[in-house]
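Checklist before submission:
- one chain only
- standard amino acids only
- sequence pasted in full

Submission:
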Amino acid sequence: MHTDEPPSEHDDTERDRSPVPEEGRRRWSRSVRFGLPAVGVMTVLLLVSAFVVQPFLIPSSSMEPTLQVGDRVLVNKLAYRFGNHPERGDVVVFDGTGSFAAEEESHGNPLTGLLHEAGAAVGLVEPSETDYVKRVIGIGGDSVRCCDKRGRIEVNGVPVEEDYLHRGDKPSTVPFDIEVPEGRLWVMGDHRSDSSDSRDHLGRPGGGTVPVGRVIGRVDWIGWPAGRWDSVRSHGAGEGTGTDRHG
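Returned file contents:
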């Protein structure tokens, strides 16, 4: 039989002793205890990535054999600070917006974009579609042409011996003869037959060159996989090409 009797004092005491609130507090305490260090570590990683060294995941074969698909490289973001400039032969990561890629407004989900940027910042996902990795062949003021009678690229009239090229590749099958504007770079992939680089953008503003201000940093190390640990040398394109000029 149902009755409308008010709850007794005994019932209130039993509710007060319920373990549910205490268990909730313990769960909250554990979440805070483990969550705060994780947030702290992520914050430090993002700060280091933003200002010092940023991991990048290599998504294509355009820089083979130097960089392989799936390599995680460490980009030195301090390399061109304090008055330093990109040199011929440097392997660089740059934002190709306006030179290699059209400037378009983003219409995607802002949250998705933010999460992708955070993942890319620590090398967990592929970089932005407008980020590229190439080797610097010419700097501001250089004359770069393809090719001499032996099929070699010339920089300031001096043939460049490119021992880093993909096996079987020619230095270029596309002829060009350009003067690199001051403050810009002529860049090419080491896998010339599978690289979209300055040669493919000759008709764009800047004639295929990239503004120095768009360079994110210099690729100095391969950090992963473990069997690929190595430094990335700047070589070949910077040797014997006349005076050192910087854009």
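Reviewer check: The mean pLDDT is 80.
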